């Protein structure tokens, strides 16, 4: 298949799944296997095009991020959520990712680990639906520092590709007393610094493997991810009051069964 078409398909998969609790990395690894798009360069591509999706969040939430940084006199920090919340949510993932990076890249980036994590992540989401605490933070601006740190710790589960960063953070938030919508919105906000950092580190460490054609394909895939993610974020956030997290868990189980059949039967 033409490399440009593969890049667009992968970008669409990334944009559709990055902010849903179904694991974008898992979908891309499995899609890459079906498209025969695998190897170290392909793994770097799958991480790099996440920047397209995260740029969609940056565009949609630009006023809030500008308020965090106070880069404009007319855009002041909102009461409630602030950089301390974001830092507490990001720090555990950054530390865990730094320590576990070699193991993740060599051992967990593959179809079998992804299938296992799809199932385990689904079980966590069902547990969050069933055992969620009484809501103390209906909106993202009501989150406490303790909840932000707790969500950050849950987010570390997503270091295992296929577990889903959004699934882990939303589940953790619900178990800690945040509403499903507040946890989802906090997950979107946390994605910006985390994905910029993760992509930057991976691109730097893989720089000797890449050439000009790879960069072009990453830009094409990233553009596709950006466009699709813009639509996906708005749609998902609007639907969070009606959708149960366990519905996504059942989808993960079906997906795991389907790909197990495709890959191993």
From TrEMBL:
Q: Membrane topology for this entry?
A: Multi-pass membrane protein
Transmembrane feature ranges: 44-62, 83-104, 110-131, 183-204, 216-239, 245-264
Molecular function terms, GO-annotated: undecaprenyl-diphosphatase activity
Q: What protein name applies here?
A: Undecaprenyl-diphosphatase
Q: Which gene encodes it?
A: uppP
Ordered alphabetically, the record's keywords are: Antibiotic resistance, Cell membrane, Cell shape, Cell wall biogenesis/degradation, Hydrolase, Membrane, Peptidoglycan synthesis, Transmembrane, Transmembrane helix
Location in the cell: Cell membrane
Catalytic activity, reaction form: di-trans,octa-cis-undecaprenyl diphosphate + H2O = di-trans,octa-cis-undecaprenyl phosphate + phosphate + H(+)
Role this protein plays:
Catalyzes the dephosphorylation of undecaprenyl diphosphate (UPP). Confers resistance to bacitracin.
The record's similarity note reads: Belongs to the UppP family.
């Amino acid at each position: 298949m033409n490399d440009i078409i593969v890049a667009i398909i992968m970008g669409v998969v990334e944009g559709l799944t990055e902010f849903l609790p179904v694991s974008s990395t898992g979908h891309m690894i499995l899609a890459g296997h079906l498209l025969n798009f695998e190897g170290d360069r392909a793994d770097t591509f799958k991480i790099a095009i996440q920047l397209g999706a995260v740029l969609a969040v940056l565009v949609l939430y630009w006023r809030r991020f500008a308020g965090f940084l106070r880069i404009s006199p007319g855009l002041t920090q909102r009461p409630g959520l602030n950089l301390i919340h974001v830092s507490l949510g990001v720090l555990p993932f950054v530390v865990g990712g730094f320590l576990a990076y070699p193991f993740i890249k060599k051992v967990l980036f593959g179809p079998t680990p992804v299938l296992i994590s799809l199932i385990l992540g689904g079980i966590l989401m069902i547990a969050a639906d069933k055992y969620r605490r009484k809501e103390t933070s209906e909106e993202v601006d009501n989150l406490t520092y303790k909840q932000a740190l707790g969500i950050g710790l849950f987010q570390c589960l997503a270091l295992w590709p296929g577990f889903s960063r959004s699934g882990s953070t939303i589940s953790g938030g619900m178990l800690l007393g945040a509403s499903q919508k507040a946890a989802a919105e906090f997950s979107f906000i946390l994605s910006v610094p985390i994905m910029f950092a993760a992509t930057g580190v991976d691109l730097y460490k893989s720089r000797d493997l890449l050439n000009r054609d790879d960069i072009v394909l990453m830009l094409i895939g990233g553009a596709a991810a950006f466009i699709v993610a813009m639509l996906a974020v708005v749609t998902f956030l609007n639907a969070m009051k009606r959708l149960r997290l366990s519905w996504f868990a059942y989808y993960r189980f079906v997906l795991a069964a389907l790909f197990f059949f495709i890959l191993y039967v």
